[in-house]
Write a sequence for this structure.
């Protein structure tokens, strides 16, 4: 644990000290304590990087804008960050397994469209509609997993293809129109049920429902990654695919399950977003995949797999949400906000790589 | 030619680069396709088409390159239990206390340094990494251990420890198959030696039947 402990300076090694070397002076004791304290702080800082960044951000914004630090603003931020957070949890699992899913936004739209079409045009009840939506997400995820493992196609390429395919299917399903809409060939049976709206726009005791869903999914994701054999298999396959194989872990099974879970979570995000927007359309979630990847990276997960965690990604999504909110309150243009986000991502990765090289954490 | 291994025996495989030693054992472990030939374990004919099959039949494989057999960003504990996840879990849920117990057991038994379950494998020395690899298979209860160049890149002290372990294991009835390019090693440790050349087993020597020069000549 103490491999990198720096040599503590004492008066003996300091030629400029005029104090007799036998007696430890208050000054030298103090400097010892400060170095040791610094070491402890530094180690925690490195491990809890994203949390520290979050705290600094909140403190800064609290002083920079009077509108920032209040409950209703925070609740708003949680509602806005939820979609990204839910996607980021799934993306974390995929990335830790040394994969990447670029189809996340498209699958979100496809699942949401399926659910909305099911209740608005096919007249199915809400529960069935939601199941169909989630099922669509699961199926696309499953197919993606099969293409990658059996087709031996790199994750990037396969999910890129799935991205355009799913988007196309969503456009076909909705005929390019928002759901529900009066101007389609299909007969409009009813508007989106109140239950669906509630999932995206509702509150429970003042807390936004999407936030509660996000917390639940984070807990589930955390449990899967740290407390199940599946989670262990994901870390193994991501850390060293060949070694995992030699240890009897099935690459195919692990990958397919991971991408299926991602698909389901994209469906959850899609349904929540539909509830918030009061309608679904085929172009929802455009760019959501990159946002989710950004959240994962900011949260400290290694893009090459094998290391990282779900909680970090939640913090990453939250940081992105707070950043957007704070910069809005400070009247920073939306265009500059993108530049700032890009700089932060690069900064985080550079810091993370430096941290890995410098410390045996 | 047949290659046989008995309980509690240490069998060495020796051949020049490209002779097919690694391919042979990889095929035994389900990592390569088998063109011809059969595998018998305890008299029964078996098909091994994946590492899962091999592990199920009690085999364990320590790779030539420690990068291939261990997961470097994972902790010592997770590496040790990697091939025996079923043992430390119930319905897919990991039992952390049980896992720690198992991890500590092997850290003690094999004197793995540093004795820190959470230490990431990449920070261990070559010898200690090899011990973790061995622990993985011991944890899985392997009865047939295949070692590919077991002492490559390991310091002398740990080498001796590892050979002691081999002998202990052999006494406990584990069958050991050892590929080694270090002639003195293989001559000292193996009860029998199989020589390979150009993908075929061409000779079998019992302990003491051959010397360094004779063995080297037979494989070239």
């Amino acid at each position: 644990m103490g491999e990198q402990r720096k040599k503590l300076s004492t008066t003996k090694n300091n030629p400029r000290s005029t104090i007799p070397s036998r007696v430890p002076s208050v000054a030298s004791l103090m400097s010892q304590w400060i170095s040791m304290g610094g070491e402890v702080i530094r180690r925690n800082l490195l491990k809890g990087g994203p949390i520290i960044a979050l705290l600094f951000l909140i403190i800064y914004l609290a002083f920079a804008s009077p509108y920032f630090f209040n409950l209703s603003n925070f609740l708003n931020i949680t509602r806005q960050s939820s979609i990204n957070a839910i996607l980021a949890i799934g993306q974390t699992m995929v990335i830790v397994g040394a994969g990447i899913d670029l189809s996340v936004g498209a699958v979100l739209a496809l699942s949401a469209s399926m659910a909305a079409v099911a209740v608005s045009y096919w007249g199915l009840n809400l529960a069935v509609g939601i199941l169909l939506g989630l099922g669509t997400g699961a199926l696309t995820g499953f197919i993606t997993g099969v293409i990658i493992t059996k087709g031996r196609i790199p994750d990037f390429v396969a999910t890129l293809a799935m991205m355009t395919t799913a988007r196309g299917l969503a456009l076909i399903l909705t005929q390019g129109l928002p759901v529900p809409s009066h101007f389609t060939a299909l007969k409009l049976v009813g508007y989106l049920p109140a239950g669906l709206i509630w999932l995206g726009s509702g509150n429970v005791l003042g807390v936004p429902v999407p936030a509660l869903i996000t917390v639940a999914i984070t807990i589930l994701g955390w449990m899967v990654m740290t407390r199940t054999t599946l989670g262990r298999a994901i870390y193994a396959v991501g850390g060293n695919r060949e070694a995992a194989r030699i240890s009897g872990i099935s690459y195919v099974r692990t990958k397919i399950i991971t991408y299926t879970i991602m698909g389901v979570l994209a469906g959850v995000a899609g349904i929540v977003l539909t509830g918030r927007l009061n309608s679904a359309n085929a172009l929802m979630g455009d760019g959501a995949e990159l946002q989710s990847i950004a959240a994962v990276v900011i949260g400290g997960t290694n893009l090459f797999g094998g290391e990282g965690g779900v909680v970090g990604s939640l913090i990453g999504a939250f940081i992105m949400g707070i950043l957007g909110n704070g910069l809005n309150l400070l009247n920073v243009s939306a265009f500059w906000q993108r530049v700032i986000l890009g700089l932060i991502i690069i900064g985080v990765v550079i810091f993370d790589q430096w941290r890995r090289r410098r410390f045996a954490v | 030619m047949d290659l046989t291994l008995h309980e509690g025996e240490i069998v060495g495989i020796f051949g020049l680069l490209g002779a097919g030693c690694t391919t042979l054992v990889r095929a035994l472990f389900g990592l390569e396709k088998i063109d011809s030939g059969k595998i018998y374990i305890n008299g029964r004919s078996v098909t091994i088409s994946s590492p899962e099959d091999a592990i199920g039949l009690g085999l364990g494989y320590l790779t030539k390159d420690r990068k291939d057999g261990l997961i470097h960003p994972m902790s010592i504990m997770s590496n040790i239990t990697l091939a025996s996840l079923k043992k430390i879990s119930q319905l897919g849920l990991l039992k952390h206390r049980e896992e720690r117990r198992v991890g500590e057991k092997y850290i003690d038994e094999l004197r793995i340094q540093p004795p820190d379950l959470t230490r990431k494998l990449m920070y261990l020395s070559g010898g200690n990494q090899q011990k973790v690899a061995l622990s993985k298979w011991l944890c899985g209860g392997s009865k047939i251990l295949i070692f590919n160049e077991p002492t490559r890149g390991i310091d002398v002290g740990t080498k001796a420890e590892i050979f002691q372990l081999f002998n202990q294991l052999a006494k406990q009835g584990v069958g050991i198959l050892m590929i080694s390019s270090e002639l003195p090693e293989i001559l000292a440790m193996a009860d029998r030696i199989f020589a390979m050349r150009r993908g075929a087993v061409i000779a079998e020597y019992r302990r003491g039947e051959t010397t360094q020069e004779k063995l080297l000549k037979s494989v070239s």
Summary: The radius of gyration of chain A is 24 Å. Confidence is low (pLDDT under 50) at residues 1-12 of chain A. The longest strand of chain A covers residues 203-204. Residues 298 and 344 of chain A are 8 Å apart (CA to CA).
